[in-house]
Specification:
The protein has about 240 residues and is of the alpha+beta class. The chain has 2 domains: about 120 residues, Alpha-D-Glucose-1,6-Bisphosphate, Chain A, domain 4 (2-Layer Sandwich), CATH 3.30.530; about 100 residues. Helix content is about 25%, strand content about 35%. The strands form 2 sheets. Strands 6-11-10-9-8-7 form a 6-stranded antiparallel beta sheet, with helices on both faces. It has a 5-stranded antiparallel beta sheet with strand order 1-5-4-3-2. Strand 2 and strand 3 form a beta hairpin.
């Protein structure tokens, strides 16, 4: 038996309404993950993709439904702010079918990180084409201490936003980045041409995971996926991070 949930957030973003609307529709790979959205002005095609409201650049709402009353809905309301930028009002609602408390806790904390990443994207890389790679670590990445130990290996346990971090990723090269987000469950790094996200999903019954949003031209997605996965797995090779 599922139980409904409702997550609401309001955030200020350093971008135009048009940039934010594009980011939450066709540009989701730049800050969250690819959604498969196919740009169109045809109401029937939008409805077929699950959109229940599509009012650029002011509002977009998406809803999926399933058996036994299950649904998952997202709503973005975009308003111009006095002095520049926009206010984004975000609502995620739906039904969780298992372990409601853990799922609700995880979804709320992921929301904070994703919306922060959205601001990084629209501020530093608006409209840029994205090569997206993502994955999870091996079984040892599910250990209670896995995320913290990963951060220790990267040398970011003490550094706050703006702290420099250098990554050596075989097959990619040296990546010079800065910390743009860090708390007990998530780590965000920004380089000149990428956003690197580390998810401490071990706190929510899963494994530590990552995503890399690459904005340079000519990135080979398959080779990049292989390189980042090998680099990530290497931090857990000893059984713990």
């Amino acid at each position: 038996m599922g139980k409904s949930f409702d997550i609401r957030r309001e955030v200020a973003l350093e971008a135009t309404p048009e940039q934010v609307f594009a980011a939450v529709t066709e540009g989701a790979a730049g800050w969250m993950f690819p959604t498969g959205f196919q740009p169109t002005d045809d109401p029937e095609q939008l409805a077929a993709q699950g959109f229940v409201e599509f009012d650029p650049p002011n509002k977009v709402a998406h809803r999926m439904e399933g058996p036994d009353g299950w649904f998952n809905a997202l709503e973005y309301v975009i308003e111009t702010r006095d002095g520049g930028g926009v206010t984004l009002r975000y609502v995620h609602s739906g039904v969780f079918t298992d372990d409601w408390d853990t799922q609700y806790d995880g979804a709320g904390k992921h929301t904070e990180f994703y919306l922060h990443t959205l601001n990084q994207y629209v501020k530093y890389f608006p409209g840029r084409e994205t090569t997206y790679v993502a994955g999870s670590g091996p079984e040892s990445a599910g250990a209670p201490e896995a995320f913290a130990m990963f951060c220790v290996q990267l040398g970011v346990m003490q550094g706050g936003p703006g702290a420099p971090v250098t990554l050596d990723v075989p097959g990619v090269g040296q990546v010079d980045a800065v910390v743009d987000f860090r708390n007990a469950n998530f780590l965000g790094l920004r380089s000149a041409d990428s956003l690197i996200r580390i998810f401490g999903r071990n706190a929510f019954g899963d494994r530590v995971g990552y995503s890399v949003h690459q904005f340079a031209e000519g990135v080979d997605q398959a080779k990049s996926q292989e390189a980042w996965q090998a680099w990530f797995d290497g931090h857990f090779a000893g059984g713990t991070a």
